[in-house]
Amino acid sequence: MTLWRRWRADLARPEVPTGREGLGFLVGTAVVIVVAAQLTDPGTALDLILLSPAVVAFVLRGLMPRLPAELFAVMVIVPVALAVGRDGALEGAFFLAVMMVYNTTSQLGSLTRALIITGAAMALPWVVAEQIAPEAGIAWQPWVLANVFILSLGRAVYRQERLIEQLEQARRALADQEVAEERRRIARELHDLAGHTLAAMLLHVTGARHVLRRDLAEAERALIDAETVGRASLDQIRATVASLRADERGTDPSLAGVADIAALVDDYRRAGLVVDMAIDESAAELSGPVGVAVHRVAREGLANVAQHAPNNHVEVRVDRHGDGVRLLVVDRGRPAPAPDPQGLHFGLVGMAERTRSVGGRFDAGPTPDGWRLDAYFPSAGADQFVSS
After folding, report:
1. Do the beta carbons of residue 354 and residue 187 sit within 8 Å?
2. DSSP assignment of 207-250, as one string?
3. How far is it, in rounded angstroms, from Cα 306 to Cα 205?
4. Exposed, middle or buried: residue 135 (CB in 10 Å: 0-12, 13-18, 19+)?
5. 8 Å CB contact between 327 and 364
6. Class of 257-388 in CATH
7. Per-domain residue ranges for the chain?
8. How far apart are CA 251 and CA 24, in angstroms?
9. What is the tens place of the pLDDT at every residue in 167-189?
10. Could you read off the pLDDT of 108-165 as tens digits, one per residue?
11. Nearest by Cα to 289 from 369, 218, 188, 213
12. Could you give the dihedral angle defined by the CA atoms of residues 170, 173, 174 and 180, in that order, rounded to the nearest 10 degrees?
């Protein structure tokens, strides 16, 4: 970026509006400065009248949030120059220009504008002491140094305020991110529970419908199994809601892990799904967040098969793979259905998010005769295997 563009970009930086909460400080400071100037170096009534517009400028600065800084500077510098330059009295009124520099430089985004205003305030005592009232013997050097110091202070305050704003924005962004992540986590939990429950119940109900006319006892058994699954799932939903509301006391019941996949497969087998299962014994001992993730992804994969291809033959494998666990759920028989035109694949999204949340990799897609789900879960960073 050229120097010219940088300068234009600096001039384009906005000025922070003056808040009404600063009105009392501005007006009080201006009044105190005028009173102190009158007490230390008294002026005439005309001097005070000439100085009064500078006090009014501080009032307007507090009442008008977007009063331009340059206009504020002129409204302060000109009355001070007229009042002090008339007969050299009220020298302390130069403090009005100093406070004006602090107020403007602490709110101006543009360093160029801040330097111009400070330069005008620095020139004020020199013009009065050397050009307007040289006979008064005013020492202008301390006032110039005071403006330089106040410029540095004002810019430091401006940077600090901007840093505070950035920190607040970052805090809000992190809070929003935490809320969004919690919403996604709750959505995954509810989707997994509802998907598993409905898939298993539908299998039982479908089986009951098929045998209703020829085997009432078998139909009743299927309906009882559907009721059992529904009640168990209702208990799981209640437990999930309770865990979301409860404090972290370490007393919550443990969540299902890899070792519980066998029971999960048995539930689907009783519902009519044909499943071949192979689980490595050492992989079955994986616990903690990774074990829960493996179980949840396996459950969602079986629920998808039960929903979309209940007549397909399913293979479920859980093996040690390097330093982690590999889950494979493959169904064969009928090709996978056409993709949802609206793209609402919440199950796939949830499984991918759950796998990535523990540092794993997830891949799923159709095959010529069904669907394949392949997920890898590293054991590092979670509870390790109990035994090798």
Report:
1. no
2. HHHHHTTT-HHHHHHHHHHHHHHHHHHHHHHHHHHHHHHS---S
3. 12
4. exposed
5. no
6. alpha beta
7. 3-139, 257-388
8. 55
9. 998 988 888 888 787 777 777 66
10. 989 999 999 999 999 999 999 999 999 888 999 999 999 999 999 999 999 999 899 8
11. 188
12. 180
| Orientation angle between helical segments 45-63 and 94-105, nearest 10 degrees | 10
Q: Which of 205, 189, 196 is nearest to 264 (CA)?
A: 196
d(C-alpha 100, C-alpha 172), whole Å? 34
Encode pLDDT of 314-362 as tens digits.
Answer: 999 999 887 889 999 999 988 877 665 554 556 788 788 888 888 899 9
CB 377 within 8 A of CB 355: yes
214/233 Cα distance (integer angstroms): 30
CA 77, chain centre distance (Å): 45
